[in-house]
Each structure stands twice: as C-alpha cells, then as structure tokens.
Amino acid sequence: MAFELPALPYAYDALGPFMSAETLEFHHDKHHQAYVTNGNNLLKDSGLEGLSLEEVVKQSYGKNAGLFNNAGQHYNHIHFWNWMKKDGGGKKIPGKLEAAIASDLGGYDKFKADFVAAGTTQFGSGWAWLSVKDGKLEISKTPNGENPLVHGASPILGVDVWEHSYYIDYRNARPKYLEAFVDSLINWEYVAEMYEAATK
C-alpha cells in the first residue's frame, strides 16, 4: 500500500497568525512529501508492502530504522494536519473527552501545563502526545518520528516539535508555539473521534 501525501484540510493561510502559510507550505509540501517519497522507496522489498500504515510503523520499529522513521513521520503528519483547525484550541472540548481529561489528567489546565512541558522538554526533534493506554489518557513525548503506537498506546493528539514546525513563526521560542497550539489550534472534534475509536 503506497504512501500518499494527503491534501491539507484547510487553506495554507487558515491557521494564521498562529501558524503561517509559509510554515505550512514548507512543512506539508516539502517535509511531509519527503517522508512519503522516502517511505515509498524504503517500503519496496521490505516485506511490509501489503500492510496498513499503522502496521508498517509497528513492525518496522527496531528492525528497519529508515522505513520506521519515514513511515512514523507519515503517520504522525497525516493526523497532525487534522489535529489543527482555524479557531481551534481552548476549552471547547466534547463532553466525554473533557470528562476523561478531568478524571485521568486533572483537568484542562493541568493537561495544558503537562502537555506543553512534554513538548518543551523533548530534547531535539520529536513529538508530545496525548494517548489512550489501558483505557486511560496519558501524556508522553517521543524522539524523532517515534509515536505511542510502538509503546502499546493509541495516540489521539500530537504536536510536532521539530524545528521546521515552528521556527519560521516562533524562532527558538518552542514553549510559545506549544501554548499557541493548545490555546488556538487544536481540533478537539478530531481528537474526540480518535478517543472514541481508541476506547471502543
């Protein structure tokens, strides 16, 4: 199953001023496209060609670093674009997910502080995550293209902390980018859909 670059679910300038059209053009058209192109080249003759993207990610972990890195980043970015929307973020969270954030993570404010901290303290490139593991929400961080799928969890929200995700707009102020992501960009409806799927 060849990897394909999905179209962005909004216009390049839709997420301004929190994420610029220039960032999205570079990030989607250049970086994500490179993961797709390289991933497809590495998928050939890997023995994993017929599998779903999730299975390619899981089965290449620890065995085929090149394929894993590109497949992982492809998976992460397919969802990353959908985890953001115009006028998103803040406390407008669908009820069931809001209740889980309250019971598992201590409420929205604590979730925000811990999620921003995870992204801020991820040394170098990587991601911060909100996932479902053993029926409960947890916050984590991973290096490079790694994601919670390979740690027995289902990611329902992730934020990219590679420099190409924020440097054009925020320079080295990663915490400011992370706060803008939580306050103004998260597509909580998409997160809630992934939460429903992960807790069935």
Based on the model shown, name its key terms:
mainly alpha; 2 domains; Helix Hairpins; three-stranded antiparallel β-sheet; 200 residues; minor pseudopilin epsh fold; metal-binding
Textual characterization of the structure:
Strand 1 (about 125-135) and strand 2 (about 135-145) form a beta hairpin. Helix 2 crosses helix 3 (about 65-80). The chain has about 200 residues and is mainly alpha-helical. The two termini are about 25 Å apart. Strands 2-1-3 form a 3-stranded antiparallel beta sheet. The mean pLDDT is about 100. The chain has 2 domains: about 20-85, Helix Hairpins (Orthogonal Bundle), CATH 1.10.287.990; about 95-200, minor pseudopilin epsh fold, CATH 3.55.40.20. The protein is built from 8 helices and 3 strands, in the order αααααβββααα. InterPro entries: Mn/Fe_SOD, Mn/Fe_SOD_BS, Mn/Fe_SOD_C, Mn/Fe_SOD_N, Mn/Fe_SOD_N_sf, SOD_C_sf. It catalyses: 2 superoxide + 2 H(+) = H2O2 + O2.
CATH evolutionary superfamily of the largest domain = Iron/manganese superoxide dismutase, C-terminal domain
Poorly predicted regions: none
Helical percent range?
Answer: 40-55%
Oligomer: single chain
Q: State the order of secondary-structure elements, H for helix, E for strand.
A: HHHHHEEEHHH
Distance between the termini: 26 Å
Number of strands: 3
Main sheet strand line-up: 2-1-3
Shape: globular
Q: What would you call the structural class?
A: mainly alpha
Mean pLDDT: 98
Instruction: Give the strand content.
Output: 5-15%
CATH class of the largest domain: Alpha Beta
Query: Cα-atom Rg, whole angstroms?
Result: 16 Å
Largest sheet: 3 strands, antiparallel
How many helical elements?
8
Classify the fold: give the CATH topology of the largest domain: minor pseudopilin epsh fold
EC number: 1.15.1.1
Catalytic activity: 2 superoxide + 2 H(+) = H2O2 + O2
Function: Destroys radicals which are normally produced within the cells and which are toxic to biological systems.
GO molecular function: metal ion binding; superoxide dismutase activity
